[in-house]
């Protein structure tokens, strides 16, 4: 590989990666999404086969040594900063399998990775399993609200939308009651992750997870969370005070001091409904899928000079009859890629909104570009003979969010597919999608497309203002709980052994980070399945929101349809994918260092300005 090469080593590795990903990504999507069992099973077999090939390559010493040599000593061809960055990412992927370690330690890394995967899957299954209790242990007046199975009552969730406070409390205490097996699985996963990180040369698993991220270190994340906690304290207390007064007014004999964690979701929803008269059914007629897609077309055309055009399908091209294909065309550059839209609910379809990369974009040896192909999967109501698919406001938000991921994939113009589009650090990957939520919450944008599906009348202005304002109600208290979850995740993946059980750590941090007290004899963390998929990275949602808010305030708040700002955002953010270190990319685009203080400022500024806006509406 070394002497007779005519290309850079990183180009060869990227071509190998691209060839594997074209098979693996498509097979994984078909496995998840195809409605026919035979296709899904064949795709699963393909996933197993390709995983075996990847595992063999990841433990191939000659490949690793060749890459290590050019990272440490340079290539025979000049390497750019992009080449070096991508080569280091490939190297880190190799080292995830412990290939750089002595054989005994390498085998231990492989065993730990396998154990973490297995234990994590069992923890996720336990996190959503119903809780069964003896029927007689629940007061008779509450049994009617839950499923009864013989002599047992099944509690399947938190019943957060129940107007009955006793039902909400019972569900919370029962569903979140400590479970020894779940506690064992979580503790086992956390200790295995810590051992794995230390074997691979990191002080903690959090240090390992944050490598090459926007935050870069756990210290930065913890400083950000601590600043947010300090600045949210009084603002969240105002939210809780409103909820306490509302609870006291609606519950005879209740005091203003007894707000509990099972109350906050209920009263947040109640205030949205009562104060702003916001109910999903009132708005849905103005949000047919067709008008929403037209709104997205108007937005992407205004910002990026691109159009979303329905494209013809070849026989057998799609996996369900109601899937359609959009060609993404730029005014001057032509075709940029394709988006397959699998939007409607159907039996057996996964109940999740997702963006799937089917083929990543990259420069080809002849100078042309391999255009990206992605799938957006939603679960929207199926149209019927009398009505089109009508979306609730939250469905509109999800549509815009997922289209943000798609635009990241379409507009990235990276040399290497390993860093195309959303293949970037977790705490930057959500920035384009979260930013799209800001557009979906701005009356100037929604006004361009929200029209009644029967009369074609625009949404009345007072409805529009109420809807957009409702998305920011109780923002401080909702953000405070996200800060708490993020801090808990960081502590769990920090120094080990933990000081006490995972539940005692939870109780300690809840007192420090959240304005609602811990409820004794509950173990909320044992239902927190995000600890598996987002271990040490749960903070990424908050940090992505901070960056998105910062971008919005700097470039789009004054004029959300500004083509100059849109083109600059495209060229300086989206075009890079993961090809430029995220921290450097954000700092260059915003012209300021990415510090915990600056990140916190963007979120607090947003909360304060939206609260002022809501207060003006209420007056």
TrEMBL record:
The keyword Acyltransferase does not apply. GO terms for molecular function: metal ion binding; metalloendopeptidase activity. The keyword Zinc applies. Signal peptide: none annotated. It is found in: Mitochondrion. Its cofactor is Zn(2+). GO terms for biological process: peptide metabolic process; protein processing involved in protein targeting to mitochondrion. Keywords: Hydrolase, Metal-binding, Metalloprotease, Mitochondrion, Protease, Transit peptide, Zinc. It holds the Pfam family Peptidase_M3. Residues 159-601 form the Peptidase M3A/M3B catalytic domain. Binds 1 zinc ion. GO terms for cellular component: mitochondrion. Its main location: mitochondrion. Belongs to the peptidase M3 family. PANTHER family: MITOCHONDRIAL INTERMEDIATE PEPTIDASE (PTHR11804:SF79), PROTEASE M3 THIMET OLIGOPEPTIDASE-RELATED (PTHR11804). This is Mitochondrial intermediate peptidase. It comes from Cryptotermes secundus.
């Amino acid at each position: 590989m070394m002497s007779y090469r005519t290309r850079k080593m990183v180009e060869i590795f990227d071509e190998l990666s691209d060839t594997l990903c074209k098979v693996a990504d498509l097979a994984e999507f078909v496995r998840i999404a195809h409605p026919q069992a035979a296709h899904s099973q064949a795709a699963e077999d393909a996933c197993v086969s390709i995983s075996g090939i990847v595992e063999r390559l990841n433990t191939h010493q000659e490949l690793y040594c060749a890459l290590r040599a050019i990272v440490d000593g340079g290539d025979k061809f000049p390497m750019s900063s992009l080449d070096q960055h991508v080569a280091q990412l490939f190297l880190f992927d190799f080292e995830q399998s412990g290939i750089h370690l002595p054989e005994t330690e390498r085998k231990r890394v492989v065993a730990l990775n396998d154990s973490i995967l297995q234990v994590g899957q069992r923890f996720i299954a336990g996190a959503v399993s119903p809780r069964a209790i003896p029927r007689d242990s629940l007061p008779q007046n509450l049994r009617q609200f839950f499923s009864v199975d013989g002599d047992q009552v099944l509690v399947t969730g938190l019943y957060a939308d129940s107007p009955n406070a006793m039902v909400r409390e019972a569900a919370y205490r029962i569903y979140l009651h400590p479970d020894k097996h779940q506690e064992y699985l979580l503790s086992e996963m956390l200790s295995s992750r810590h051992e794995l990180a230390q074997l691979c040369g990191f002080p903690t698993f959090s240090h390992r997870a944050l490598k090459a991220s926007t935050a870069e270190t756990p210290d930065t994340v913890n400083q950000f969370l601590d600043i947010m906690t300090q600045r949210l304290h009084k603002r969240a207390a105002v939210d809780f005070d409103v909820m306490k007064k509302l609870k006291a007014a609606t519950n005879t004999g209740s005091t203003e001091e007894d707000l509990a964690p099972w109350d906050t979701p209920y009263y947040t929803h109640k205030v949205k409904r009562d104060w702003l008269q916001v109910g999903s059914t009132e708005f849905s007629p103005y949000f047919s899928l067709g008008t929403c897609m037209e709104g997205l077309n108007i937005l992407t055309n205004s910002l990026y000079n691109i159009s979303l055009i329905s494209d013809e399908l070849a026989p057998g091209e799609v996996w369900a009859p109601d899937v359609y294909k959009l060609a993404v065309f730029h005014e001057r550059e032509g075709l940029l890629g394709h988006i397959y839209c699998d939007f409607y609910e159907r039996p057996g379809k996964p109940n999740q909104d997702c963006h799937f990369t089917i083929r990543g974009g990259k420069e080809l040896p002849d100078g042309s570009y391999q255009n990206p192909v992605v799938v957006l999967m939603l679960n929207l109501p199926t149209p019927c003979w009398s009505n089109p698919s009508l979306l609730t406001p939250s469905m509109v938000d999800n549509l815009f969010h997922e289209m943000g991921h798609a635009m990241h994939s379409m507009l990235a113009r990276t040399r290497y597919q390993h860093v195309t589009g959303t293949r970037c650090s977790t705490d930057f990957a959500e920035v384009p999608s979260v930013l799209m939520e800001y557009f979906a919450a701005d009356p100037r944008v929604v006004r361009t497309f929200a029209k009644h599906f029967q009369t074609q009348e625009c949404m009345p202005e007072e409805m529009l203002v109420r809807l957009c304002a409702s998305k920011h109600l109780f923002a401080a208290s909702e953000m405070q709980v996200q800060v708490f979850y993020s801090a808990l995740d960081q502590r769990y993946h920090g120094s080990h052994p933990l000081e006490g059980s995972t539940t005692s750590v939870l109780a300690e941090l809840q007192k420090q980070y959240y304005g609602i007290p811990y409820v004794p004899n509950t173990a909320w963390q044992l239902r927190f399945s995000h600890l598996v998929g987002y271990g040490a990275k749960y903070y990424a949602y908050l940090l992505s929101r901070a960056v998105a808010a910062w971008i919005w305030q700097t470039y789009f708040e004054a004029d959300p349809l500004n083509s100059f700002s849109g083109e600059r955002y495209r060229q300086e953010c989206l075009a890079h994918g993961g090809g430029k270190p995220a921290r450097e990319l954000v700092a260059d685009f915003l012209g300021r260092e990415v510090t915990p203080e600056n990140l916190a400022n963007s979120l607090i500024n947003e909360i304060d300005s939206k609260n002022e806006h809501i207060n003006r509406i209420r007056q």
